[in-house]
Amino acid sequence: MAFLSLFRIGLLYLAASNLLLAHAAPTAPIQGQLLLPDGSDLNTTRITLNDGEQTTYTRPDGTFTFYHVPPGVHLLDVQSQFYHFSQVKVQLLEESMDAPKCIEYAFPGAPKTVAPYPILLTAHAKYEYFEKQQGFAFSSILKNPMMLMMIFSVGLMFVMPMMMDNLDPEDKERMQKQMEMQSDPQKMLSELMGGLTGAPAQAPVKKASGKSRKSRRD
């Protein structure tokens, strides 16, 4: 009797297992490969599905596989530190688990394109974490304000004598007076005040020496 009861329990367990397997959701693998533009070997790279729900790594030849993926829309991301790969959306339908539909996005916001299956992704670019040092450029000198002022001053030193030679004697004399006034701020200020008041500019009074005072007393 005990043997028959154990046999019946085993049959019930097998029937229940088969029933659960029949009603369980089907699963399928997702396969693909990563490539570099120059055809060189790619280091082992981490790939995630649905922001880390499933994780796998590439093989030495760049191929990868996710096992037991249920139906639905899955987001595939390549977590590479050196190269930028596209993002892929994979759609698995229960009626066509062996032929998933793939949509590729080169970068966030880019127009979508249909990708083949198995997934084949080629790196778009290599990440540059450091800015390359630029060499010496003559144009950078011309962008410096101090250098421009110095070049202008040197050019003015050569041009001014030529301009003075071409001026009339009266204009030359007037320009020389202006230059003398600019070199003597006190004289320029007195000239300016005289022009505002209408009075002629007074010449600076010189102090009498000690000998002249004695001659006046005598």
From TrEMBL:
Subcellular location: Membrane
Pfam families: EMC7_beta-sandw
First and last residue of the signal peptide: 1-24
Sorted UniProt keywords: Membrane, Signal, Transmembrane, Transmembrane helix
Domain ER membrane protein complex subunit 7 beta-sandwich: 40-149
Positions of transmembrane segments: 146-167
Main location: membrane
Organism domain of life: Eukaryota
Membrane topology, record value: Single-pass membrane protein
Start and end residues of each stretch annotated as Disordered: 174-218
Coiled-coil ranges from the UniProt annotation: none
GO molecular function: carbohydrate binding
Keyword S-adenosyl-L-methionine: no
A GO cellular component entry from the record: EMC complex
Compositional bias segments (type: Basic residues): 208-218
Family: Belongs to the EMC7 family.
Name of this protein: ER membrane protein complex subunit 7 beta-sandwich domain-containing protein
Lineage of the organism: Eukaryota, Sar, Stramenopiles, Ochrophyta, Bacillariophyta
